[in-house]
Specification:
The chain has about 300 residues and is an all-alpha fold. It contains 10 helices and no strands.
């Protein structure tokens, strides 16, 4: 009995051990798989940055290609684009007609002709004995002023001597009339601006325009410059058929032009008996004063 039990016990123990092994074997295998799973997961986790990196590289490469394919504009093209946004910019930068018109309106607010500010091309005066009415000055403005003040320190005029002389040079250059000799004529007509005859200083009439004697005062002008302009225009009426550059303010301009037609007077001596009557040496006396002016 005890022998059979011992044999039976051995078989029973062997079966229990074998069953236990078969029961726990799948669990151990699964445990090993679970234990190995984090390693597999870790490998995936490490691989993800590689994928992201490749994507980032692709996106950067795309942006680089996009920039390379974009048109490159230089500064001139950029400015041209701005001009398209602002149509007047190109005209203003290039001196277009609109821009020039605005500048012209600023320089000539009263609608004066541009040529009125441009000196004429006239024969240059090179000698003190040149007796032409048309020409360029030999005396300086300072010489004109000194000659006046040396003969009359207190001239009765509505502006300073310097300003009055500058008017003669401006108006004379505009019309091609010699301003220094015209100023000498004004000195003769007014007695170095002492007056004393029919004309009074307030008339700004420096050459006896319209004065015929017997109390006839002649023309009045609102400013000294207008008086000088009328004087120069009257000389132009005798010496040229060309119309004045500025609107006519000489009240006798058309009278002279109608009388002379295509004829003109070329020298100061030609004014004898015409500007002044009888005036036998009228022109010669003006030129004599002019030459004295050159010594100042």
């Amino acid at each position: 009995m005890s022998k059979h039990w011992n044999s039976y016990g051995k078989y029973l123990l062997t079966g229990v051990v074998l069953g236990s092994f078969l029961f726990y074997a799948p669990t151990v295998t699964e445990a090993k798989r679970v234990h190995k799973a984090p390693q597999a997961s870790a490998e995936v986790t490490v691989a993800v940055p590689d994928v992201v990196s490749e994507t980032s590289k692709t996106q950067k490469a795309s942006r680089v290609r996009a920039r390379q394919t974009e048109p490159k504009l230089n500064i001139r093209e950029d400015l041209r684009g701005e001009d398209q946004l602002h149509p007047t910019a190109e005209k203003e930068l290039s001196g277009g007609s609109d821009f020039q018109s605005r500048i012209h309106n600023i320089l000539y607010p009263s609608g004066q002709a541009e040529q009125s500010m441009t000196q004429l091309s006239v024969p240059a005066t090179v000698s003190a004995y040149d007796d032409s009415i048309i020409g360029t000055p030999l005396a300086s403005q300072e010489q004109c002023v000194r000659y006046l003040l040396s003969n009359n320190p207190n001239p009765d005029i509505t502006v300073t001597p310097q300003q009055l002389v500058s008017y003669y040079y401006q108006e004379g250059a505009r019309e091609g009339i010699r301003p220094d000799v015209a100023f000498a004529q004004a000195l003769k007509e007014t007695g170095f601006f002492r007056y004393g005859g029919d004309v009074i200083p307030e008339q700004n009439n420096f050459c006896g325009l319209g004065t015929t004697g017997g109390g006839v005062k002649g023309a009045f002008f609102p400013t000294a410059q207008m008086g000088v302009r009328a004087h120069i225009q009257h000389l132009l009426a005798y010496s040229s058929t060309r119309e004045p550059s500025e609107p006519v303010v000489d009240p006798r301009y058309q009278l002279v032009r109608d009388s002379y037609g295509t004829r003109t007077l070329g020298t100061w001596e030609d004014l004898n008996g015409r500007w002044a009557v009888p005036g036998y040496t009228y022109g010669q006396s003006i030129l004599s004063m002019f030459r004295a002016m050159l010594t100042e």
